[in-house]
Design goal:
InterPro entries: HotDog_dom_sf, Mitochondrial_HTD2. This protein has one domain: Hotdog Thioesterase (Thiol Ester Dehydrase, Chain A, Roll). It is an alpha+beta fold. Helix 4 runs antiparallel to helix 8 and helix 7 packs across helix 9. The protein is globular and about 55 Å long. It is built from 11 helices and 13 strands.
């Protein structure tokens, strides 16, 4: 077990292959954690697997310069699939200074060479080991952080030198500001770690749930050297599920049988299940049909080599799917985009209204070439009091979901948005005309 814990994963020099990568690493893990336990040792297997995976060191991924290019390329990739009112240019202007919600997903990619990937193109640091080759994105959450700090509201007398006894004390008040990742920023980083590991199911048919914690923000050089917590902007959790190879083989055989039985029916597909529709009608929605080009563009932007998004034959022969799968992160980007349009979110650079959090679950796969509908519904509004600032802010709750071609829910999410106080919004509206005339983005605004 000590040998496993001493592994240090490289994150910033992709040209140098890690000595314990790919098949070699899987072989090493198999020596310490058996992935084919007998029924009487299943509890021990779960405990040992959890201990080993939680002991894996965190990964640091640096972005020395948060280039606007990748965010712009994501906008271009989605431009032909979004309605006009959901285009980012319409929401935050043509020169946004802050990263739009969800766009962090095309930054901080896995820093791995091709030889370090598993055979299906995924990251070995997330895998339980041999015997669990199929990886599913089950869901996750995002939290956009805010901080309370003190701001002076009065200036000292001009004839009083700083620090003098005659200098009047400044008045301060607490304000809330959003620590957004900003395009063009220097020294941004992501710290990824395994937060939890759970084994469920009967012996021989286990599922391994791996919860990843990804923390995004700014750092100083000393923070990076010490691998300490830095100023956070986004806290993301991802839940991955790994299935046993035996279950995958059964799914492949079942899908082939269904394909043969339904070959005369052009409307039926293998592994196709009818999902329950949403219980309510949406307040806002749009439809799109993802193409192979869109999936390729998103895979390239995220440095994602998972074959389920790229190789149709692999999907059918090795995973039991009828076609290429839409990325879980791409579904998340689409839901955040729809929410911003529905909630009239002005954007992270203008803090009149912003997304505070979102949590989601992937219920069924979405496939390339099949129509999907992104839906948003407003559920409640409440005034939230912040004692530190002495102000109240309006918070809104939302339901978001994505329907597959049969109208059933494939993804389900809930989100919270927050509005600034009336005084702030009045000042924002007053100054907005001047901002547009000068094409200036006010940047990281404070909630006074």
């Amino acid at each position: 077990m000590k040998a496993i814990r001493s592994i240090s994963w490289r994150t910033s020099r992709p040209s140098q292959q890690h000595p314990l990568a790919g098949p070699q690493r899987a072989l090493l893990l198999s020596r310490y954690v058996s992935t084919n336990p007998s029924p009487e040792t299943n509890g021990d297997f779960a405990a040992r697997l959890r201990e080993e995976m939680l002991a894996r060191p965190p990964t640091w991924i640096e972005e020395r310069f948060l280039s606007p290019t990748r965010s712009q390329l994501l906008d271009l990739a989605l431009a032909d699939y979004l309605p006009a009112d959901a285009i980012h240019d319409r929401l935050i202007g043509r020169k946004p200074s802050a990263l739009p919600p969800g766009h962090h997903l095309v930054y901080f990619p896995p820093m791995l060479a091709e030889s370090e990937l598993l055979p299906d193109g995924t990251d070995p640091k997330h895998s339980p080991g041999q015997g669990f080759s199929r990886r599913l994105w089950a869901g996750g959450s995002l939290e956009f952080t805010h901080r309370v700090h003190s701001r002076p509201v009065s200036d000292p007398a001009p004839d009083s030198p700083p620090g003098s006894d005659s200098e009047p004390a400044r008045e301060h008040k607490a304000v809330i500001s959003a620590d957004k990742l900003r395009l063009g920023s220097l020294r941004c980083a992501c710290r990824e770690s395994i937060a939890d590991v759970t084994v469920r199911g009967q012996p021989g048919n286990e599922k391994v749930y791996v919860e990843l914690l990804r923390e995004y923000g700014y750092f100083h050089s000393v923070d990076l050297q010490r691998r300490e917590t830095f100023r956070l902007s986004i806290i993301e959790r991802r839940t991955l599920v790994f299935l046993r190879d035996e279950e995958v083989k059964m799914d492949v055989a079942k899908s082939q049988d269904q394909t043969t039985a339904s070959s005369s029916d052009s409307n039926s597909g293998n592994n196709k299940k009818v999902r329950a529709p949403a219980p309510h009608k949406p307040d806002y929605s749009f439809e799109l049909t993802p193409s192979r080009r869109l999936l390729f563009h998103f895979s390239a932007l995220t440095h994602n080599a998972h074959l389920i998004h790229l190789d149709r034959e692999y999907c059918r022969a090795s995973e039991g799917h009828r076609d290429l799968l839409v990325h879980g992160p791409l579904s998340l980007v689409l839901m955040l985009t729809a929410l911003r349009a529905a909630a009239k979110v002005v954007g992270p650079a203008r803090a009149e209204k912003h997304i505070q959090s979102i949590s989601y679950r992937n219920l069924a796969p979405l496939y390339v070439g099949e129509t999907m509908r992104v839906c948003v519904r407003h559920t409640s509004n409440a005034a939230t009091e912040y004692p530190a600032t002495g102000t109240k802010r309006s918070t809104d709750s939302w339901e978001i979901w994505i329907e597959g071609p049969d109208g059933g829910m494939a993804v389900k999410a809930s989100a919270v948005t927050m509005s600034g106080p009336k005084k702030y919004k009045a000042n924002l509206k007053k100054n907005r005309a001047g901002d547009h005339e000068n094409n200036v983005s006010p940047g990281n605004q404070e909630f006074a």
